[in-house]
Amino acid sequence: MSELLKGKVALVTGAGHGIGRGHAVELASHGATVVVNDLGSSVSGEGAGRDADVVVEVIRSRGGSAVANYGNVAVEADADAMVQQAVDAFGRLDIVVNNAGIVRDRVIWNMSVDDFDLVMNVHVRGSWLTSRAAARHWRAAAKDNGGRTYGRIINTTSGAGLLGNFGQTNYATAKAAIVGLTQTLNLELARLGVTANVIGPGGMTRITGTMSEGTIREPDEIPHDEFDPKDPSLCAPVVAWLASDEAGHVSGQVIRAMGEHIHLMSGWSEEVTLSNGGNRWDANKLGDLFATDLFKTRAPGLRLGG
Questions:
Q1: Which of 38, 48, 120, 298 has the fewest CB atoms inside 10 Å of its own CB, making it the most exposed?
Q2: Fold annotation for 9-265
Q3: Which of 162, 161, 153, 146 is nearest to 195 (CA)?
């Protein structure tokens, strides 16, 4: 077993299946003790179960250490209790991986308010609540340790949040919001020694299975020496590294790890800048200026309509 995360305690939400399950198993393989959280609901958020127990047994069968948590990340008391469970059982919490999520896909004119609210509730409120609970714990720990402590938050975005996706105005909005949340966590927690980053994973999971056809396999069901580009755990080594001591200098980053590639995302940046020279913009002149200098869809000297 690797010792990259030896002695660390991690909380992984939504870890009963797919990507979150891959994170939990990977972190444990590097020596972390893992609180495996999963409500046990369906992919659309109905019901509850004990899916986390299966993952705990997988980890223990491989020589790792894990305990189950069945809380709902979108419920304040449950989110607080997850963090407290780690502290009470193991004396500390070092890593939070926010992965819990559901989908309720419909084109916007058919989407109900409940479909929008529930998806936002799980993804955004859930990530915020667990991050807040962990931040409060780390702030208290830092006060007892000269102002600094160890902490890692790794949140989850998706291509839908970064690029958009038809039929997912709720899910895409939530995943984009998580990036904004993480950028601000990076600013607020830096002085404590806590990092906050975003992972953009890929793979065939229960969620992606609602949008495309394919065989869904749990990460621990895929032989370790087999490379499957749809393996939902392919991003897990990146998460493990971000959670480690080695990544203490990395924060506020969005990293997509899909298939055989790792991409550092540059985010929203000022690609082209126009100046009005201290004068008010004239809407009647912006069309030509945008076409030639901003979007570069028209050569200079060629006016719109001419």
A1: 48
A2: Rossmann fold (3.40.50)
A3: 153
- One of 41, 127, 131, 158 is an active-site residue; which one? 158
Cα–Cα distance, 170 to 108 (Å, whole number) = 9
Average pLDDT over residues 291-295: 93
Lowest model confidence (mean pLDDT) among 8-22, 151-165, 208-222: 208-222
pTM value? 0.91
Span between the terminal Cα atoms of the chain, in Å: 70
| Report for 88-92, 212-216, 295-299: range of highest mean pLDDT | 88-92
Q: Give the model confidence (pLDDT) of 154-168 as tens digits.
A: 999 999 999 999 999
Active-site option among 8, 131, 150, 171: 171
Average pLDDT of the residues in 185-210:
86
Going by the DSSP 8-state scheme, the letter that residue 109 receives in this structure is: G
- Catalytic residue check, 41: no
266 burial (CB, 10 Å; 0-12 / 13-18 / 19+) is exposed
The rounded distance, in Å, linking the Cα atoms of 148 and 72 is 30
Q: What are phi and psi of 231, to 5 degrees?
A: -65, 120
The single residue of 70, 175, 230, 233 carrying the catalytic annotation is 175
Give residues with Cβ within 8 angstroms of 66, minimum separation 6. Answer: 24, 28, 33, 34, 35, 36, 55, 56, 59, 60
- Domain-wise residue ranges, the chain: 9-265, 270-306
Active site residue 175: yes
> Is there a catalytic annotation at residue 70?
no
